[in-house]
Structure formats: structure tokens, C-alpha cells
Amino acid sequence: MIFLYIDPGTGSMLFTILIGLLGTAVYLLRNVWVKIRFWLTGGAKDKQQAQDRVPYAIFTDSKRYWNVFGPICDEFEKRQQPLVYMTASPDDPALKKEYKYVKPEFIGEGNRAFAHLNFLKADILLSSTPGLEVYQWKRSKEVKWYVHIPHAASDISLYRMFGIDYYDAILLSGEYQMRQVRRLEELRGLPAKELQLVGIPYLDAMEQRLESAPALEKKETTVLLAPSWGPSAILGRYGKEAVKALLATGYHVIIRPHPQSFTAEKEMLEGLMAEFPDGPQLEWNRDNDNFDVLRRSDILISDFSGVIFDYALIFKKPVIYADTTFDKSPYDACWLDEEPWTFTTLPKIGRQLKESDFGDLKQIIADMLGDPGYKEAIEAARRETWAHIGESAARTADYMIAKEAELAGTEK
To answer: Would you say residue 9 lies in a domain?
Structure first.
């Protein structure tokens, strides 16, 4: 009798692939129904509107990514280049902009947005949304070139599995991301995508904003707690013990919960805010824009939130990150042998916080604020993950315009 052994890592990966294939089948059937319903409910009008070909288009599935696309739209407007910005958020800030050459459009939420995209006619479509050709978002036969741009300064391999496989090009910010893409292509037998280092548009904009901001007045040491949400996040995992530990330091404390916490964890959050109300030492922050609280604070405590790298790379201040576990199995990272850049870099720019450290939190913060080594590590991280600082919007526009001309030339 022959026994077959599959190690846990491989088994997890195979199971994930199976789930992905089943999910794809479900979404294919759903997509057929969406298209049928699309036609039966007057979708022909939307299709007619999509008949006019545009040279450049952007799609975003959420208003949260306006910080990525805003600088790019501004660049196209400055160059007097026509661009259609399509959003799935009815309250996207772009819809209030008074552009002349950039045309913001709300194309519906959920499946209606994807149905619109399936009929799109454009030479080039730029998006930060993963999953093209994997679930309900399919490549339009009338779009010549799909370009992906990440919305965070981290590993390109931390998308859900197969998230970037079917783009034609990816605009990146670090050499390590390029290596990850090439390795995934090799492992999966995919054709090589065009890879271009352009930088990070929203970080460029944030740094420009910081440079022009007025000087801060002298203040007491301020600690910002800005976690993600869910049972593994700081407030969900440690709750009031974390708040008590922060207040025990004597430092001024700002707590900025993740917006999703106010809906998904409303009861837990309301309990904490009632037990620890705003006062001279503590403030709860719900500003739409996090720039001011990031600038006012001296150190950040978070978990796996993307705000960690925004804070470190822009404000060049150390971070404390919670002791959390990360399961790579649903992500492209599980195909790669190397540890993700994110998790090798965190210990260099900050310190891990364990529950056993709560009693020593004041000393930990003081030690980190007085250690110049963190600033050196942050500068190294900037060099590794943020190419062409200050040039990303221009380089993105350069790439799209040059590619559109190239595509037009091949048709002659």
C-alpha cells in the first residue's frame, strides 16, 4: 500500500486553490445572471454610454483610494489630457472636483460597477483593485491594456491569491516587489507583465503636505493608538487592558479606531468610549483625514494596519506593533519562499508589543523615542519601498501616455 504525504503548507495551498476555483465557478454563474439582469433592467442605456472609446480610464472600487488617484487625476488635468475616473462610491471626493479634462463618474456599486466595466471601451485602464479575471470583474474585449497600481507601501504578494495575475502591467515602488511578481509568474507559467517603478502617489502628496504645514507648537509627549479592526486587532484582542496601559504611562493619548469598528464592533467600541471618556489626557479621534493626528503624535501603536508605513515613511517616527499572527495561506505570499518585506522590516522600524509588556509600556516608549537607530532604519525602508519620491504622479502619467501612443502605433 502506498501512502501519500502532503505537508501542511502544501495542503493549505492546495485547499486554497480549490476554494478559489470553486469561488470562480460560482462567480462565473453569478456573472451570467448579472449580465442577463443588466439587459432586462435597462442596461442597454449604460452600454450605449460606454460605446465612446476613451484613451485613458481609472477605476476604483472605493473612495478610500482617492488619495492614490487624486494626484494622478491632477496630473492629467494639468497636461490637458482627457481621462475618465470611474468610481463605485457615490460619495467619492472626485465627484465634487471641477475638472475640465478629467471626468469623474459614479458607475454603480458592486456588480453593477463590474457590469459597466465589462462593456468599457478604453485604450488603457488603471486600477488598484485586485482580482481582474478571477471573480466577477472580467476583461473587456474593448480595453487594450490593464494597468495595476498598489495602494500601499508593502509587498505586492500580500494580495489574495491570483489578485494581480491578469493585468498587463503593474506600476510599483520597490525592486523587491518586482522580484515577487517575476517569481509568481515563473511558478504559475504566466507571461511576463510590464513592470515599471513609478513610486507612491499618495505618499508623495502627503509628504508635500507635511513640508508646507506650519510648525507645531511645543506639546507634551503624545501617543497615537490607531489599530485595524476585528478580533485580532488591538482593541478587539486586548480591549480595556490596552487603554489602561496607555493611560498608566502618563503620556497624552489619542485613540483613533478604524472606521469599520464603529459598525462591525459598535458595542465593544461604545463600551470602551463610555468607560474611558474624552478628558485632559485622552481624546478619541474620528476625523475623516488622519494627517493632523499623525503629525501631532510622537509615536504610533498599531497592529497590522497599513497606517504603520504611512506614519514611519512620512513622519519618520518609530512605531509599536501588536503581537499578531498572519496566515499566509490565502495570499500570493504563500507561494514564495522568502518572508514578506513587510514582516522583515517591521522589527527594524519599530518594536513588537506583547501583552506581557503592558506594565513596561512607558519605558518602552521612552526608549524608542530616544533611540536614533529607528530613524536610520526608517530611512533604509524608504529607499527600499519608495522609488522616485515626489515623481510618482508624473511618472504614472508618462507611462500611460507613452503606452497609449505605442498601442496606437501597433494598429497602423
So the answer is: no
Is residue 7 included in any domain, yes or no? no
Domain count, the chain: 2
- Look at the pTM and tell me if it is higher than 0.85: no
- Please state, in angstroms and rounded to a whole number, the distance separating the CA atoms of residues 215 and 199: 27
Q: Are residues 304 and 399 in the same domain?
A: no
Angstrom distance (rounded) from CA 323 to CA 346: 12
Q: Which residues of the chain have pLDDT under 50?
A: 1-5, 7-9, 12, 16, 19-20, 23-24, 26-27, 34, 40-42, 44-50
Residues 227 and 339 both lie in one domain: yes
Burial of 372 (0-12, 13-18, 19+ CB in 10 A): exposed
Using H for helix, E for strand and C for coil, what is the string for 330-383? CEHHHHCCCCCHHHHHHHHHEEEECHHHHHHHHHHHHHHHCCCHHHHHHHHHHH
Q: Which three cell numbers stand for residue 263?
A: 459598525
Q: Is 139 inside a domain boundary?
A: yes
Query: For residue 109, is it within any domain?
Result: yes
| 54 and 178, same domain (yes or no) | yes
Could you give the CA distance from residue 139 to residue 59 in angstroms, rounded to a whole number? Answer: 13
Q: Rounded to whole angstroms, how far apart are CA atoms 135 and 151? A: 20
Is residue 359 exposed (0-12), middle (13-18) or buried (19+ Cβ within 10 Å)? exposed
Cα–Cα distance list, 196 to 20, 140, 173, 359 (Å): 29, 23, 8, 47
Determine how β-strand 222-225 pairs with β-strand 299-302.
Answer: parallel
Residue 224, H or E segment:
strand 222-225
Could you tell me the residue range of the domain that residue 251 belongs to? 216-385
Grid cell locating 182 = 517575476
Residues 294 and 311 in one domain: yes
For 306, list phi and psi in degrees, rounded to 5: -65, -10
